[in-house]
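Entry: Transcription termination/antitermination protein NusA
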Amino acid sequence: MKAKDSKNFLEALDELEREKGISKESVLEAIELALLAAYKKNYGEDENVEVIVDRENGDIKVFASKIIVNADDLLDPNKEISLEDAKKIKKRVKVGDTLKFEVNCEDFRRNAVQNGKQIVIQKVREAEREHIFNKFKEREDSIVTGIIRRIDNRKNIFIEIDGIELILPPAEQSISDVYRVGERIKVYILSVEKTNKFPKILISRKNEGLLKKLFEIEIPEITSGIIEIKSVAREAGSRAKVAVYSEVPNIDTVGACIGQRGARIKNIVDELNGERIDIVEWKPVIEEFVSAVLSPAVVSNVTILEDGTARVLVEPSQLSLAIGKNGQNARLAARLTGMRVDIKVIDSEALKEEENE
């Protein structure tokens, strides 16, 4: 490699490190491995050599290591060198020493470097993919902000986050969101997995984790651990329920989440484009918790059956509130409590008991 080419080569690696965050040293090590493979392919797999790229000037050198033996004992020229030949390279040596010396490799420099180019490119790509994986793995289960770059005809949203374009698929979009190219948007990093190619990074605007993280951002008492989010149930873009709890006596957990004049919850609702959020206090007594979760309905009685079903009795006037539009309130209550919720009108239940008698 010419001096000018070597300088440009090292400058390119510096730029790669700055722009992509890929370690210059890791790339140089990958290049050395690639060139070593190329050298052995051309000069023999049994050659005991190493390829070194000078970190200061980019020059490529090949060094062989051989054990010094008497000429009569020379069996493997790839790994051994006679004492007579060794002294031509270095005078003060003796039998049994290992001699490391530079190999004349002009032909290799002209040909093998070019042959190894694709291997080097592949190693750089692997290093970049590893960097991207590590970068986003650290952000798994968190919210990041990106810019919408384009929307395809399948309604996939392409969002640029720190120079990387990720896809928000329709299955992870909220029905209340309106996506416009050029706008900034918050997304939840649901999972990051390694693959043979680009890391699989799943982002979401629909997942319950997004709502939970928004609560942590907006409500300091949750961040500090004074208030704990026990469970979240969400039908994105429509309605959600969040159960909160605190071991600190006399703290208004629901009020703290709502904030003064509703400021805290308003910020969350605005981010979710009007999604309705019910905040309920988690209770250790499951009957009381189920009753609270079915708010705004007033529950008359809750009984936990042997199969784990919560049998809920309400007045006729409360039935529609308890079930909710298209059964939404009951569905969210079941998901929030982890139980099957069976809602019945109190009068009809009484009639059934009379019939059984």
